[in-house]
Amino acid sequence: MANVVSQYESKPPPFGHEMRKCFSFDPEYINMNHGSYGSLPSPVAEAIKPYYALAEANPDLFHRFTSIDLIRDVRKRMAKFIGAAHTEEVVFVPNASHGLNTILRSFIWEEGDIISSCNTTYNSISRTAEYISDIPPHPEVVQFTLLFPTSHSEIIQNWRAYVRSLNEMRDQSAQKLGRRPKIVAIIDSIISVPGALLPWKEMVKICKEEDVWSVVDGAHSIGQELDLNLAEANPDFWVTNCHKWMYAKRGCALLYVPKRNQHIIKASFPTSHAYKKGGGSNFVEQFEWNGTIDFVPYISASCALDFRAWLGGEHVINDYCHRIALEGGKRLAQILGTEIIDQDQDFQFTLSMVNVAVPFPPTMSSAFEIDMAFRRKLLIKRKIYPAFFYHNGKWWIRCSAQIWSQVEDFEVLGQAILEASKEILEEFGDGTEKKTMGIEDKVEKVN
Ligand SMILES: Cc1ncc(COP(=O)(O)O)c(C=O)c1O
């Protein structure tokens, strides 16, 4: 790897607004939505420059030798970081959508099979399940319902009952079909909206007990969820975005497939020249080159870990973000006169994202225009932006706390939301009379 040590000889700035020095934000913009696209630290941007230079100095040498060797080293580091039993169980893909599509489209679907998603599954991922169900042999999509406020123990209890009910459905089909269909469950580790940690390890365990495949969407996990140990959690498949909470350059994601399940992923997507090469399983080789892309984001994962070590490491970073999420979320709820989505005082759903209710009347429309209005009124007009979503009869704000955040940012946001929500009520009404332009109940999730 390039020598980036000199960047890290001095002490890092303290967390809070001074840390903005390490990012390239518009000085007028308050970024409270790190969760959607991540934010590239300037030292990481600096550390990857030599790799871009190498790629252009000799494109053949870089793509045929240098980048392959570099990415092998990075994969080794990442495999250790996530607690995979073997480096060969971890490959890079451009983003979580890519990884999850690779998994879901790799199963050989048969009549009677079941794909389980959830009402809170990231929209494009539940659409992936829907698409697979729309084409022959039409596996059935079944949905687990998660309604906040709730608690981890309630979710686990409901999940167990739900998975057992899927198994009963399967038994009935098995009698008709003369074979046992498969069940594949998509489980979020941290939901997109609400931004909430799920008891995913327990959910995976229940899947194991009930002979159900577990596909874990961990898009928000790496860099936010501490002490990942995939060998212990033992999901059947797991995907995470390094460009969100881990500070890698977009697009950089990890696809984890334990050796026992690599036979399911017969071909990378797109198909690699290494498909079927050598006869045996060559999972890693297929993902090493399956179409020309910018490979530097994959290398940037290692640079991001260097940056995070300089900051003090995973616990130091996440302890700060978690504290600001909780303090900031409570302050925001106080300003708005509303509440945080966590029901229990141990705030088991909140890591670095906190969800606070918008002060709208309960009659308020769920129309997509409301979300669009918030985007215009906050992102464009007021230069501050969290994410907005409609859940269980209410509009919510998902705030991401980061190393540059301070509770004061939540106070600025509070004032902006009070103004914007008042304007929205004036423009769209409170839902008791129809003022919106249509697409009721269609709130797109792009978080
Ligand atoms: C839970 C979840 N899954 C999947 C994705 C898709 O990530 P990407 O757009 O990087 O593919 C996101 C994006 O925010 C997400 O929040």
Structural notes for this entry:
A 7-stranded mixed sheet has the order 2-10-9-8-5-3-4, with helices on both faces. It has 2 domains: 64-302, Aspartate Aminotransferase, domain 2, CATH 3.40.640.10; 315-428, Aspartate Aminotransferase, domain 1. It starts with 29 loop residues before the first strand and ends in a 19-residue tail after the last helix. The protein contains 13 helices and 14 strands. Helix content is 42%, strand content 13%. With 447 residues, the chain is of the alpha/beta class. Helix 6 (152-177) packs parallel to helix 7 (200-209). Strand 13 and strand 14 (394-400) form a beta hairpin. The chain is globular and about 65 Å long. The longest helix has 26 residues, at 152-177. It has helices at residues 34-37, 42-57, 59-81, 96-106, 123-134, 152-177, 200-209, 230-233, 283-288, 296-311, 314-336, 368-380, 407-428, and strands at 30-31, 90-93, 114-118, 140-144, 183-188, 190-191, 196-197, 213-217, 237-241, 253-256, 353-357, 384-385, 387-391, 394-400. Residues 36, 95-97, 122, 125, 188, 192, 217, 219-220, 241, 447 line the site of pyridoxal-5'-phosphate.
Question: Which features would summarize this protein structure in a list?
Answer:
Aspartate Aminotransferase, domain 2; globular; 2 domains; Aspartate Aminotransferase, domain 1; 7-stranded mixed β-sheet; disordered C terminus; alpha/beta; 3-stranded antiparallel β-sheet; binds pyridoxal-5'-phosphate; 13 helices; 447 residues
Task: Write a compact overview of the structure shown.
The chain is of the alpha/beta class and 447 residues long. It has 13 helices and 14 strands. The longest helix is centred in the middle third of the chain and has 26 residues.
